[in-house]
Amino acid sequence: MIVITAPTGQIGGRLLNTLLEEAPTRGEELRVIVRDPGKLPDAVRDRVDVVTGSHGDAAVVDRAFAGADAVFWLVPPAPPRAPSLDAAYSGFTGAAAKAFTAHGVGHVVGVSALGRGTPLAGRAGHVTASLAMDDLIASTGVAYRALANPTFMDNLLQQVASIRDHGVFTGTVAAGRKAPLAATRDIAAAAARLLLDRSWTGTGEVPVLGPEDLSANDVARVMSEVLGRPVRYERQSLGDLRATLTGHGFGDAVVEGYVDMMRSKDNGLDDGVRRTPHHPSPTTFRAWCEEVLKPEVQA
């Protein structure tokens, strides 16, 4: 039995579709934890066991993890008014960590971030909190793999209107700084491989780096070529980022967490892992633009 959290999100939804194709041939049953089962397609609901509720709720995970061999763990975005990032990550995960032990769950795959082992990891906001969550899960004794991710290509979908209407996307990193970018579909594929072949033991990280490092200028160039129109990058100051997030109702803990994370990324937080063939993440940014961004911009 494989349990999937966040099955209607960008990563969890793709993972669920992959497992629905492959798990039956391996004799694997699937269970999902979802707040609103109505968000699952009818064809999916008929093929999985559904536990309704939040995976931060002790009673919910106690039901969901009974008889589970493996769990895909993804915490939801930090609530805008979260009292602390520790509460949003490790606090949310606390009940699940106890349930892993209580139900003898053998393997857990979690969505996390790059940065462990770098001097910046201790002051990187949301990344620091995510790494602490990994440590909490690992402390339970389960075999654990943290998917160590950089910035998602898919985050650009939040700026589709600006890209379409003004030919502009924004960020806070220097325009020429190269860093890895990952597509969420590659993250889901990495999770599927680990959940279906549970021959691994112990704890560790699996980097999902994408096939190349790109700068914001590189991203602008590729988008311009794919969309057939000029797209440029405008760098936003960290002060502007802080003001924007505050204006959208985010509390101090979450705002400062984003600011600290983006400052650390601009200083090289994502640079510490070398790309190897052992952890494939094949989607190029150009392919992602062709297949994902372009249809959204043209919609």
Give an overview of the whole structure.
- The structure is a single chain.
- The chain is an alpha/beta fold and 299 residues long.
- The chain has a domain of 178 residues: NAD(P)-binding Rossmann-like Domain (Rossmann fold), CATH 3.40.50.
- Helix content is 42%, strand content 17%.
- It has eleven helices and twelve strands.
- The strands form three sheets. Strands 3-2-1-4-5-6-10 form a seven-stranded parallel beta sheet, with helices on both faces. The chain has a three-stranded mixed beta sheet with strand order 7-9-11. Strands 8-12 form a two-stranded parallel sheet.
- Strand 4, helix 4 and strand 5 form a beta-alpha-beta unit.
- Helix 8 crosses helix 11.
- The chain starts with a strand and ends with a helix.
- The model has no long low-confidence stretch (mean pLDDT 96).
What are the key terms here?
299 residues; alpha/beta; Rossmann fold; 7-stranded parallel β-sheet; 3-stranded mixed β-sheet; 11 helices
- How would a crystallographer describe the biggest sheet? 7 strands, parallel
The CATH architecture of the domain at 2-151 and 182-209 comes to 3-Layer(aba) Sandwich
Helix content: 40-55%
The total of helices stands at 11
Q: Sketch the topology as an H/E string, one letter per element.
A: EHEHEHEHEHEEHEEHEEHEHHH
User: How do the strands of the widest beta sheet line up side by side?
Assistant: 3-2-1-4-5-6-10
Calculate Rg over CA atoms.
Answer: 19 Å
Total beta strand runs: 12
Low-confidence stretches: none
Terminal Cα span: 39 Å
Instruction: Give the integer mean of the pLDDT values.
Output: 96
- From the spread of the alpha carbons, the general shape counts as globular
Q: Given the helix and strand composition, which structural class is it? A: alpha/beta
Highest-level CATH class of the domain at 2-151 and 182-209: Alpha Beta
- According to CATH, the homologous superfamily of the domain at 2-151 and 182-209 is NAD(P)-binding Rossmann-like Domain
Determine the strand fraction and express it as a percent band: 15-25%
